[in-house]
Design a protein that fits this description.
AMP-bd_C_sf, globular, five-stranded antiparallel β-sheet, GMP Synthetase, Chain A, domain 3, membrane, five-stranded mixed β-sheet, Rossmann fold, alpha/beta
Length: 573
């Protein structure tokens, strides 16, 4: 049997702790944070939040949630917001009570948010003023009971005629009342199955599914990353993380990358998070300089801008000492260019999934520059095998589907046994990614699954195809990815028009163009921005299928390679 793993020993992972217990109390072995090193800095204002305030806000919020909404074990709270300094305290407050958090993409349309609220069975929603209009439009679905089921992160720009509570008001309210709850204490082994997060992923195919992630999974992945980087080894000469180092927390917290790596791992190793609500290149560059940022965790589209935008030349980033790219593969040429922008930084990549509760592999700490194309070394405690198409196990250097096991794996897809059975198999997670393992390096070669990655976000072709078929002029559709330097991939739709539509547009190219624009708008009006048909719309006589009716997507992917390449999105700064 060809099993792949690192020989680096993994310390004991506690299975009787909640995430806030793990994050907010001194645990033997974890790096000690000096009292003058804050947990969070608000990017716009420079406001600093240290351990005492983070602890106070967490437990005051927990008391308020218990008093006002009776949040308790098993209840689900949705956080529908861009990054915010109260995002983590909100998560931990819900966990203190035994509740589950489902983080939602703040760019979601009302229909997309509604789907997540219903699928997760959310009882309460915390939202940002920028998201309030969408949140309030679906505040009556499922267990929610109108606007009284909404909490605002702050009141800026929102009329409070409905008496909607803000987080600051709840912190004050909870702090002034006697404790109304008993913090959850797990028995030995209980953290392995207690659900902390319902994070949404499209898995290997189909519509988004709620991935059930336990407290133990998050804690395990944090300890795996800390072990990988020799955090507690006094003899380690590389010291990639030193208490007081600063990371620009620009990755969205609702995404598994930002949720586990940024919020939990980087806080665990005593870094300070400069919390950025939304990426904007000019602000991003100024913040790196202003806060003397030492660590950058980014995605390839941001690296494209760092390497190619002229504004970057105004800055000196020699103080940055580590830059890790994830969520989608990064090309070797971009990695080389990035070393010119960040001359003193270790540059590398990581790989992971929502279903593996984040990190599967990452650039080794002793590497100054990750091997070109490599997603790094497997995490300590993670075991991998590579399955060839015939079901046999590949040897080192052979291609196949990556299948992984380890302490951080998610539990299942909530209330979806069929999809769970396809991905979670006897303790192993089928990633749907074709890889090669060479030595200690994991190379992601191709995506076997249908899901495409747009700016690091998952896009399920089936979801877009189902929506396209709602258009009265379309009788069949297939969505495929086309490569794009900035976004990684972009959705391109091949559509079969109805006879009446064909008769109407005939050979008139102007009418063809207008109908394509209408079809693209049909999608953009209903879906989040990264699901738009930025790759274009193409008319086709028929969608190729096999005898059983399954779309032969590979044929259209190949066909798309011959299309003009000036279709990609222009990066927005």
């Amino acid at each position: 049997m060809s099993l792949f793993y690192t020989t680096q020993p993994l310390p004991n992972i506690p299975d009787d702790l909640t995430i806030p217990q793990f994050m907010l109390r001194e645990i033997s072995g974890r790096p000690r944070r000096p009292s003058n090193v804050p947990y969070f800095v608000e990017d716009l204002t420079g406001r600093r939040i240290g351990y005492e305030e983070a602890h106070h806000r967490t437990f005051s919020l927990a008391n308020a949630l218990s008093l006002k909404w009776n949040i308790a074990r098993g209840d689900v709270v949705c956080i529908f917001s861009p990054n915010h300094v109260d995002y983590a305290p909100l998560i931990w407050a819900v966990h203190v009570l035994g509740g589950t958090v489902t983080p939602a993409n703040p760019s979601y349309t009302a229909e997309e948010l509604k789907y997540q609220l219903l699928t997760s069975n959310a009882k309460l929603m915390v939202t940002h003023p920028a998201c309030f209009k969408v949140a309030s439009s679906v505040a009556n679905v499922g267990q929610l009971s109108g606007k009284k089921s909404i909490i605002l992160l702050d009141s800026l720009g929102v009329s409070n005629a409905d008496g909607i509570a803000t987080v600051d008001e709840l912190v004050t309210f909870g702090a002034r009342r006697p404790e109304n709850y008993k913090a959850i204490r797990f028995k030995r082994g209980e953290a392995r199955t207690a659900v902390a997060f319902l994070s949404f992923s499209s898995g290997t195919t189909g519509s988004p599914k709620a991935v059930a992630i336990s407290h133990y999974s998050v804690i395990a992945n944090v300890i795996q990353m800390a072990t990988h980087y020799n955090i507690n080894d006094p003899k380690d000469i590389h010291k990639r993380f030193i208490p007081g180092d600063t990371v620009l927390a620009v990755l969205p917290f609702f995404h598994i990358y930002g949720l586990v790596v940024t919020i939990h791992f980087l806080l665990y190793v005593s870094l300070t998070l400069v919390v950025v609500p939304k990426f904007n290149l000019s602000d991003f560059l100024r913040s790196i300089e202003r806060y003397r940022v030492t660590h950058l965790y980014v995605v390839p589209p941001q690296i494209v801008l760092l390497c190619k935008h002229p504004e970057v030349k105004k800055y000196d980033f020699r103080h940055v000492k580590l830059c890790i790219s994830g969520a989608a593969p990064l090309g070797g040429e971009l990695m080389r260019q990035l070393t010119q922008i960040l001359p003193n930084a270790t540059v590398g990549q990581g790989y992971g999934l929502t279903e593996t509760c984040a990190t599967v592999s990452m650039t080794p700490p002793e590497s100054k520059f990750g091997a070109i194309g490599s997603a790094g070394r497997l995490m300590p405690g993670t075991i991998a095998k590579v399955l060839k198409p015939d079901g046999t196990m590949a040897k080192e250097g052979e291609r196949g589907e990556l299948v992984v096991s380890g302490p951080s794996m998610a539990l299942c897809y909530l209330n979806n046994p069929e999809a769970s059975a396809e991905t979670f198999v006897d303790g192993w997670v089928r990633t749907g990614d074709e890889v090669v393992i060479q030595g200690t390096d994991l190379f992601v070669v191709d995506r076997l699954k249908e899901i495409m990655k747009v700016r690091g976000f998952q896009v399920a072709p089936a979801e877009l195809e189902a929506h396209l078929l709602l258009h009265p002029d379309i009788t069949d559709a297939c969505v495929v990815p086309i490569p794009d330097e900035y976004s990684g991939e972009l959705p391109l739709a091949y559509v079969v028009l109805s006879e009446s539509a064909l008769a109407l547009i005939g050979s008139n190219q102007s009418k063809h163009r207008l109908l394509k624009q209408e079809i693209a708008k049909h999608v953009s009006d209903a879906k989040v921005h990264y699901k738009k048909l930025a790759g274009g719309v193409e008319f086709i006589d028929s969608i190729p299928k096999n005898p059983s009716g399954k779309i032969l997507r590979r044929i259209l992917r190949e066909k798309a390679k011959g299309l003009p390449r000036e279709r990609g999105l222009v990066p927005k700064l």
